Amino acid sequence: MRYNILIAALSIALLPVSSLAQEYPKEVVDAAHSISSHTLMDYVHEMCLPTYEGRGAGSEGYTKIANWVADHLSQWGVQPTGDDNTYFQKYPWPYTEVLAPGEVELIVVQKGDTIRKPYTIPDQFFPGSNSDSGIVEAEVVYVGFGISAPELGYDDYKGIDVKGKIVVFASESPAKSDHPDVEKWVPYSLHQYKFKNALEKGAAGVLYVGTIANPSIPFQKEMVYAHIGDQVVAELFYGTGKEYGALKNSIHKTIKPASMSLKKSARIVAQTVHHPNTITSNVLGLVEGSDPDLKDEVILIGAHLDGQGNPGVLLPGALDNATGVANIMEVARAFAQLPQKPKRSVAFIFIGAEETGLIGSNYFVNNPTIPKEKTICFINLDMVGNGRGLALWGAESYPHILEPFAKANADFVHRNFSSSPARIPRTRPRSDAAVFLKAGYSAVSVGATERVKPVNYHHPDDKPENTITPEIMEDASQVLFLGVWNLANR
């Protein structure tokens, strides 16, 4: 009796394995199992080392990490598919070296006495990644969103003198994402526009509201700037009779400027060297399919390789985006080492200069090394390393893509799995997936949901031990591998 019960129990326990073996060849199951959180975290720790300088686009550190990825692809037998039969697709991108954290100081004159209050990084202020080198000490003027849009009947600089002064403004625009005409405001919401506009209006410096590293602000000669946090903003507005948050909400509601002098001065110190002629790159490789008729069709998987750099303080960029890169590396290794390749080809793109304004993905879609008409889809991974659940964002618009991944999750890792429709953003694009989508590709993004650790977005504390749950990285990579296997063999 006990023997029969034991046999029955063993039979039930073995059912999922037997079923899985019928669905996937043994070598595919073995390859999926070979994807390990330990190896993934080894990759992440490597990418976060100071020798790579935060992987800032254009830096020597980025070149080193690009070579490191290419070396792994070569060792695994992944074919180069960059320019001139190399792993690299190179393009110019200027780089600003930040020599020191710099300074931000509030200056208040009371009853003839000058009071100076210095601030500290990273919570109170953050150095400008592309600031010019210099010292600016001047009166501070609040100019809302820093926008002059006469055709929209809006000008934050109208009637206020900012020549030789430091201006304070916020990111985005007066029109929120649900505004009926938000598309008209998009060109004015770009960092590039705001800083150019401030310089043209005669401002000597900028205090940009929000303490996150932002390498997408372009270098401009004679423009010294820093990012400031809530405490600095509150103290700049102290004694004016206005509260920053309420003033900003009023601008959103009325779409009318509310610029004003803050009756205080500030000092910004930046120590930088600008390198205008540096080169950065995308890194590309391909595992060729096994079917003579289908191997020209390609599934393209991507993640941005660059980080936020080292603007006076190292930004390791563990979650953003060493995780996505590590996930793809393990999937590339697993495909390359399969004895029998999938029917369609699988390509991998490690994208440069994402953090500087989606430069690398834009460069690729305009100069594809893999024909667009042969690309089945683009699958993006960004910050996939913190959570309990998995998602394939955008895939509801592509049932033929969603089904193979939902099946892989159901067959193998059994995580909560969700999706959403693909949408071209009405405001400025924020991801490489949006660039591919806008360019006419079928584009989806692997995501992690139900986050369990702080994100520390664009912050020095984005370290492996602070922001990553290794188990979700392993499961995301396994689902990616098996989902792509399913899709490649449809």
Explained architecture:
The strands form 3 sheets. Strands 1, 2, 13, 14, 15, 16, 17, 18 and 19 form a 9-stranded mixed sheet that branches. Helix 9 (318-336) packs across helix 14. The protein has helices spanning 2-23, 26-34, 37-47, 60-76, 182-189, 191-200, 230-237, 244-254, 318-336, 359-366, 399-413, 432-438, 464-467, 470-488; strands at residues 79-80, 88-92, 95-110, 113-118, 125-127, 134-142, 148-149, 154-155, 166-169, 205-209, 224-228, 260-275, 279-287, 298-304, 345-351, 375-381, 389-393, 417-419, 443-449. The longest helix has 22 residues, at 2-23. The chain starts with a helix and ends with a helix. The protein has 14 helices and 19 strands. The protein folds into 2 domains: 24-93 and 278-488, Zn peptidases (Aminopeptidase, 3-Layer(aba) Sandwich); 105-274, Glucose Oxidase, domain 1, CATH 3.50.30.30. A hairpin with a 2-residue loop joins strand 3 (95-110) and strand 4. It is of the alpha/beta class and 490 residues long.
